[in-house]
Write a structure and sequence with these properties.
The complex is a heterodimer. By secondary structure, chain A is of the alpha+beta class. Chain A is built from 4 helices and 7 strands. About 10% of the residues of chain A have low confidence. The chains are: A alpha+beta, B mainly alpha.
Chain lengths: ~170, ~500
């Protein structure tokens, strides 16, 4: 109950302070996944706030609920969420998309009892603070031109090799 | 008496190295095809350029000699040592052109790591990497796991004798079938069966977890290739932790164990000689080291008083022990190895990585059979010391056939053991010089040399350049079991002996 009240209080506080922050990326008052992974072990089981980009897809969790993996500072972190929370995420990051930036308030477990030792966060609330979207990949035609020229050159070298070899065999 | 490579020898070596480079260039057709299916045109152009560079460089090298003689043992060692470097250098070109690598050096690091099936990585933004680039990273592990020379041998491309020398030079000790080309093809056949079975199994599990069909088949293939080839790459930054699935981890565990087993043993078991699995000294040593390591890791984890029950110990502890021996897939974060495993658990994983897998497998490290042979030799020496001077004491061991331990076998095993040990320590010292702690430095050094791929956190895009070069050398030398590398170094030294060249 205490945890729930703490989480509720934190959620309200962050919702109030974070208005108008959409598309702003990570805010300064939450931890990154990398910071959570390196968290002081004495805080195992405490309520934390973490922000990161939702990546991949949401996955079925054993015993109910879903897994959402978030990314920040080149570190991923598993967040155990309800089905409704998972469905609320619009974009997951992959080669074609930037994922939604989500803020999670939840309990950090260094070796979760419920999930066979997973390092995870059990979300008590999840909010999207920046919506993701398609990623643009710049096409550089010069690469294709140079590559094609290389292939033509390689073909000519192969012909030259064949001619020299046949001449030596004669 | 040193066999110096003359000008014509160098042309022969260049010719065959060029063939390997052309092979790597042609293999880029796979990511080009995959990228075209997914309309990843930016990434496709990276591979078009990479293929153009590889084919041009390869054909230039091939042109060095138009009628190469028979490949001698010295040629084979030089071809293998140089071939692996040249292959990695051209394989790195498309990676370097992608937005996921800050520099060519980082791309070359991952190319060497991929081909040597080490699994250490300095990639950035892996979770946003193009499908074709991910395909290339894992394809490199599939090619490298079997050996790029074995891949060429299985095609028997333009080789004028010396196939067995090339096969041995790539760190393989046994001919499985009488014909070495058939041996190479058998290795690919075994791999194809495991990769097909693993991909189908993981595909079923991943789609059950909610992964879409196309991502499911790609991830299943990539994870299978990385696990069976004891590579350790994964398409997500979290490695196997991404999936939060015991079934995925246990499937990967089975594939890693299969990949760690000697292909000669696979052949015997497939022919019906299943008792070979229990009689073989190599599997006995491997099982013993894994059992002791698992117990020590379990003790370390239990001492941290955080891990709840047997399943957690299996997923986080035993898995890391077996992974250390083989692929280097991770189910814990690097810093957890320091924080949760305790000194005894960390030591057990370092020893596991150092021992590695089996001879003629996709695994690295000293290899279990050599540890068994050295142990038997110690027993023999002790018995001889205790016996009357006139007595003749022999020790037998079983590895495919019954064998008697000879000084030659012991000496060869001890030589490789000492070379590995020295390289483990050298890398550890290098890490310490750059300011990392001794346990972390030793861990990463052993992981690189033994081509394990577990990381305690040192390996990253921002690690010092000097340390990247040290680990690249360790991955290359460890994969080839040093002899080919030492021969290459000796030839370079001899090439500077101008007096000798004039003669």
């Amino acid at each position: 109950m205490m945890r729930f009240l703490m989480a509720l209080a934190l959620t309200v506080a962050f919702a109030a302070s974070g208005s108008g922050m959409a598309h702003a990326g990570l805010s300064g008052d939450a931890m990154s996944p990398a910071e959570v992974v390196a968290i002081d072990r004495a805080r195992d089981g405490s309520v934390i706030v973490v922000e990161g980009e939702a990546i991949g897809e949401h996955l079925r969790a054993r015993g109910g609920g879903r897994w959402v993996n978030i990314l920040g500072d080149e570190t991923g972190l598993g967040i155990w969420v309800t089905d409704a929370m998972a469905e609320g995420i619009e974009y997951f990051g992959d080669h074609r998309h930037d994922g939604d930036i989500v803020r999670v308030v939840g309990v950090v477990n260094i070796a979760c009892d419920q999930h066979a030792g997973e390092f995870d966060v059990h979300a008590e609330s999840l909010a999207t603070i920046a919506v993701g979207g398609p990623r643009e990949m710049e096409i550089q035609p010069i690469k294709g031109v140079v590559g094609a020229a290389g292939m033509v050159l390689a073909f000519l070298l192969w012909r030259y090799y064949r001619q020299r070899r046949e001449r030596r065999m004669l | 008496m040193w066999l110096r490579l003359a000008s014509r020898d160098l042309r022969i070596v260049s010719h065959y190295v060029g063939m390997l480079v052309v092979g790597i260039g042609l293999a880029m057709a796979v990511p080009i095809a995959v990228g075209s299916i997914y309309a990843e045109w930016a990434a496709v152009l990276d591979f078009v350029l990479g293929m153009g560079v590889a084919l041009t460089v390869g054909m230039l090298l091939i042109n060095a000699e138009t009628r190469p003689d028979r490949v001698t043992h010295t040629h084979a060692l030089a071809i293998t040592a140089l071939g692996w470097i040249a292959a990695a250098m051209v394989a790195a070109v498309p990676l370097a052109l992608s937005p996921n690598y800050d520099s060519y050096l980082n791309a070359a690091f991952d190319a060497i790591s991929g081909l040597t099936v080490s699994g250490l990585t300095v990639v950035s933004g892996l979770d946003h990497m193009a499908i074709s680039h991910n395909m290339w990273r894992h394809l490199m592990q599939l090619i490298g796991g079997q050996g790029i020379v074995v891949a060429a041998l299985s095609l028997a491309v333009g080789l004028r004798g010396g196939a067995f020398s090339l096969y041995l030079a790539e760190g393989r000790d046994e001919r499985i079938l009488p014909n070495v080309v058939h041996t190479a093809r058998f290795i690919w056949f075994v791999t194809a069966v495991y990769v097909a079975a693993g991909t189908l199994t993981l595909f079923a599990i991943l789609t059950h977890l909610g992964v879409s069909l196309d991502r499911g088949i790609l991830h299943a293939f990539w994870l299978t290739a990385a696990a069976f080839d004891t590579g350790g790459f994964a398409p997500q930054r979290m490695n196997l932790m991404y999936y939060h699935s015991t079934l995925v981890e246990m499937t990967a565990l089975c594939l890693m164990m299969a990949g760690s087993i000697n292909f000669a043993l696979h052949a015997h078991v497939w022919r019906g000689a299943r008792d070979e699995l229990w009689k073989n000294l190599e599997t006995r040593v491997l099982a013993t080291v894994i059992a002791i390591g698992s117990m020590l890791v379990a003790l370390g984890l239990m001492a941290s008083d955080r891990f709840p029950g047997g399943l957690a110990l299996l997923r986080k502890g035993v898995f890391q022990v077996i992974s250390g021996h083989s692929a280097g897939h991770q189910t814990v974060y690097g810093n957890q190895l320091l924080e949760e495993f305790g000194s005894i658990g960390l030591l057990a994983i370092i020893i596991g990585m150092a021992v590695g897998g089996s001879l003629s497998s996709t695994g690295g490290g000293v290899k279990a059979l050599r540890i068994g042979v050295i142990t038997k030799s110690i027993i023999l020496q002790t018995k001889q010391a205790l016996a009357p001077p006139s007595s003749a004491i022999k020790i037998r061991y079983h590895h495919i056939t019954e064998r008697i331990l000879t000084p030659d076998v012991t000496g060869a095993a001890a030589t490789v053991f000492i070379l590995y040990l020295g390289t483990y320590l050298m890398g550890g010292v290098a890490g310490a010089i750059y300011g990392y702690g001794i346990p972390e430095s030793l861990f990463e050094s052993v992981s690189a040399t033994a081509n394990s791929g577990l990381s305690i956190g040192i390996t990253s895009p921002s690690m010092p350049t000097g340390l990247k070069l040290v680990y690249m050398f360790q991955m290359w030398a460890g994969r080839l079991e040093f002899i080919a590398v030492l021969v290459l170094i000796a030839q370079v030294v001899l090439a500077f002996d101008l007096k000798g060249m004039r003669k």
